[in-house]
Amino acid sequence: MNLRDVVDGTSNTIALVESAEPDISWLEPRDMMTSEFVSSLRKGELARRHHGSSVAMADGSVRFLSKDIDGVLLNGLLTPQFGADTFSGAAWPDDLIEKMPQQGLREPVSVSSLPATDLVPVRSTLLKANRNQIWSAAFQMAWDDLKSTAGGTVRTSVQSDLVNALNAASFDRTNLSSKAVLFGATNGTSGEDAELATRIRATFPDANYSLQPLPVRDGQQALRLMAMIRKQMPFATPFARFRKPLSFVAETGENTVQSFGQEQPENVLPITLSGDKTFMSQVVICDDFGDDSCVIRLVTAGSEADEVIVALTDPKETLEQTWQAVQERIQRPNPNHERRVLDSTETLQIPILNFSLIDHFSELEGLPIEGFGNPAYIALASLDVRLRLDETGAEFVSAGEAGAGLIGSIGDEPYKSDRVRRFIFNRPFFIAMKEPKAREPWFMAWIANTALMEKFDGHSR
Predict the structure, then answer these.
(1) 3-state SS assignment for residue 258
(2) What gap in Å lies between CA 264 and CA 83, rounded to an integer?
(3) How far is residue 411 CA from its own chain's centroid?
(4) Distance separating alpha carbons of residues 77 and 450, to the nearest angstrom
(5) What b-and-e string marks burial along 222-259, b requiring 16 or more CB atoms within 10 Å of the CB?
(6) Which is more confident, 114 or 69?
(7) How far apart are CA 385 and CA 398, in angstroms?
(8) Euclidean distance between CA atoms 323 and 441, whole angstroms
(9) What is the reported pTM?
(10) How far apart (Å, rounded) are the C-alpha atoms in residues 164 and 159?
(11) What pLDDT sits at residue 101?
(12) How many Å apart are CA 372 and CA 225, to the nearest integer?
């Protein structure tokens, strides 16, 4: 590279890294993949020091990096054209021993506070025009436990299409690793609820979830059933955050949002992480009918190596039907689609999603139900979904709670196979997350507008 290609500045770009391997002479530097460096740094293996490693910048200065350094900052230091703020010259701290703050998940707000956005308890809910729709398996699993407690189905004397849909549906728990899910059942008393809260903190200490109040009268027997999903899914090699805004076009208008992916620098040779085999393997082009119709899989480096599937596609009537159509495209792609790898000259741009929402399903709460030996009613039906998807990976928490109160007791243009592809998710799209061997995803959403995205304010993080 020429020095002028290091547009982030030589004091902001790592050139050499420390290695404790005995067979490498200090006179014989060897190339190292960025993913290999990140993995070794995180594990404290590179320099055989648990707290971090030394690096030399392109300007010749030597710095110390903590193994807990923020992923976005680290990606900026490892790339010469990242474009995000890192440090400059003397502004660098003497070391980075302390962990840099992560963005984290927000506190949940009522879904009613967001425009044109719905949390839904079942995948068969009809999609509504120009509205976001979000589904998580957490509430279905809680309802499945309620069905089991009621003898196999929840019966109600009041006609409810939603109860019928929940009874007809189910979520196969083999689609989720046991490490990623927690189930709880209490009698609604403060003592048992406190024990469940302690279990949640012990199992998922950073999930920051509080049980929903169970509205039953004093002395009334109750039942609380909870299912919680926790996922941390980093990318082995972080993507870049785009320096320019993405104009997301929906039926309701156009808004600028923040985005991530692979960006090609202007007026310079394309120098990206695409030369990294780990980076190339974490992006799979599953199907491609053109820039406006594609299915892409992002493979994460979490304990289950979950897949993030994003699809520019026309929606079907429901999330479930849309997922089936996307699956069909993955299994039987366009015959002209042959290139499954993202080339270094091609563009991938995905909006950053960042939301924390909760909803109580008022259609269910208060309904009289049978099968509990005594007259009963649904006292609680809630779903909490929190997601952040950005250049470093995805973080997800979702909890569904079902409670019962017991009354008295308990493609228009021709396809061109040789074109330089631009996969830019700047219009409504489908997204799903699943474990690699699972048949069903544990999260699905139709993103119809920008209510769930990070707005572009002219400054990148």
Answers:
(1) coil
(2) 12
(3) 28
(4) 30
(5) bbbbbbbbbbbbbbbbbbbbbeebbebebeeeebbbbb
(6) 114
(7) 4
(8) 9
(9) 0.79
(10) 9
(11) 39
(12) 14
Which of 159, 166, 211, 164 shows the shortest CA–CA distance to 190? 211
Q: What are 337's two structure tokens?
A: 């689609």
Alpha carbons 162 and 214: distance in angstroms, whole number: 21
According to CATH, where is 2.30.39.10 located in the chain?
Answer: 107-461
Q: How many helices (H) and strands (E) does the chain have?
A: 7, 23
Q: What's the CA angle centered on 202, arms 119 and 149, to 5 degrees?
A: 55
Give the relative orientation of helices 137-149 and 161-168 as an angle to the nearest 10 degrees: 90
* Secondary structure (DSSP) of 297-310: EEE--STT--EEEE
Q: So what's the pLDDT on residue 102?
A: 47
Residue with tokens 């050139």: 15
Q: How many CA atoms lie within 13 A of 139 on its CB side?
A: 25
Q: Both tokens of residue 317?
A: 């009537």
d(CA 126, CA 128): 6
Expressed in percent and rounded to 5, the helix, strand and coil fractions of the chain are: 20, 30, 50
Largest Cα–Cα separation, the chain: 82
Pairing state between β 353-360 and 109-110 = parallel
| CB-based contact 433:389 (threshold 8 Å) | no
Listed residue (192, 211, 204, 180) closest to 443, CA to CA: 180
* Spatial distance between the Cα atoms of 112 and 114, rounded to a whole number of angstroms: 5
Give the integer Cα–Cα distance in Å for 46 and 38: 9
Q: Which of the residue ranges 73-82, 183-192, 195-204, 272-281 would you say has the lowest mean pLDDT?
A: 272-281
* Confidence (pLDDT) at 408: 62
* Size (the chain), residues: 461
Is the model's pLDDT at 295 over the cut of 50? yes
* pLDDT tens digits along 398-412: 999 999 988 764 444
Q: Integer distance in angstroms from the first to the last C-alpha of the chain? A: 26
CB within 8 Å of 90: residues ≥ 6 apart: none
Contact 327, 430 (CB under 8 A): no
Mean pLDDT of the chain: 85
Q: The tokens of 213 are what?
A: 């109040």
Closest by Cα among 386, 322, 293, 311 to 126: 322
Asked if residues 109 and 115 have their Cβ atoms less than 8 Å apart, the reply is no
Q: Which fold has domain 107-461?
A: Alpha-1-antitrypsin; domain 1 (2.30.39)
Query: Which one-letter amino acid corresponds to residue 160?
Result: S
